[in-house]
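Figure caption, in words: inputs first, then the predicted bound structure.
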Amino acid sequence: MSETRVDAVRSRVVPACACSTRNQGVIPANGEMTRISRRGIHFWLSMSDLLLNSCRMNTLNGKHLLLGVTGGIAAYKSAELIRQLRSQGALVRVVMTAGAQAFITPLTLQALSGNPVHTGLLDDQAEAAMGHITLARWADALLIAPATADFIARLTQGRADDLLSAVALACEAPVAIAPAMNRAMWENPATRLNITALRSRGIHVFGPAPGEQACGETGPGRLLEPDELVTAVAGLFETLALSGRRVLVTAGPTREAIDPVRYLSNHSSGRMGFAVAQAAVEAGAGVVLVSGPVSLETPPRVKRIDVVSAADMQRAVLERVADCDIFIAVAAVADYRPEQTAGHKLKKTAGQLTLTLECNPDILAGVAALPNAPFTVGFAAETEAVADNARAKRASKAIDMIAANQVGAGRGFDAEDNALHVIWAGGERELPLAGKTKLARQLVALIAERFNDSGNKVIRFNAKDSA
Ligand code: C5P
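Bound structure (cytidine-5'-monophosphate present):
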């Protein structure tokens, strides 16, 4: 059997369009390589390659992946692709074109994805439940695999005459295509021009791979293998916007003890803060998350510190703030705490119970007032006059940026979706209603933009510090 050096597999496992510069690592001279086999060929991978690939896999955990399947013989591979995406924790929904259904049944993909498969643009029921706009909004990324030459041409034209093309047109999340076709069709100038146009619009193109084709010819046009596509899709969520930065995030509520069994708290679920921490990791930062009591899994590659009260949270933040470039305070810190915490469970007495409360320290304002303060970002949950109150809050806490959101009436706390109005010195931006994961990614991109513009200090870190 043939043996191939790591450079060859790198270029195939991580397609150029999806890879970050971190993939260009140096092969260790000490020979610590691991052999893996695929398609009867042995490849040698360094431990750092294996680690990188496993990190990328974690990236898919909880992501909403919309898979578009078009009508080519390679459509059968979408079954295995869905299986692998789900095994990485992704939530998968499938849209099939009419052509795709001639190659593989919706029932198969429904069983594998665990969700009904979407096929029709003008289906009353589908439109009411999850129509093209809802599907486009649901997606954290849209992958069209396989993408036929015809679908690529229609995508290039911006057509919207079937469900998949309409979803692709409406989709604001990253879109990727994995072409699969005869090599002459791939090499035809019409397809080449279409691909160039799609790339220039920011659409990612995964593959195709060279090799034997179903038509008996040999050349470029094979769909990438499912594991290669999974790696490439994971790469969509990785940016380098905060590469080498350290980010400290607070999240969740705090609990202020009244006695050993009772406390004051609020409805914060911690989801927004956890999504911000995850987005910062995906942007290449080393992230420490100081979290109040929540029932959420720690995002991959985030170092989490659990705290209970505002005083605990302040201590945890102040111990670490000197090492961070950016501090993002998402926690809903209780403003007040009981002046005294009873050492035993308070007994019910007739009449009223009066609690005297004292102010908790303002963690964010305290960090912003430090001599070498990091770039500070706060949140403002408001029930009315959202932007005006947020502007005033940004000024009073002397922070760099504030993200304001409307709360109450099912919005903000404990809701799936959120919308933010982000304000900084000299600028404002609306981030419209979206899932918290998507919104967090947009917010982190904005923070990175403002942080990098502000010419802040850079603290370099080692990847091993961040886990
Ligand atoms: O003043 P307000 O509670 O509305 O401010 C909200 C912002 O300040 C959030 O970013 C929150 O995490 C932060 N905060 C804090 N410490 C407090 C109160 C709020 O860090 N004690």
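The pocket of cytidine-5'-monophosphate is lined by residues 250, 310, 329-331, 333, 335, 360, 362-364, 378-380, 393 (CB under 6 Å).
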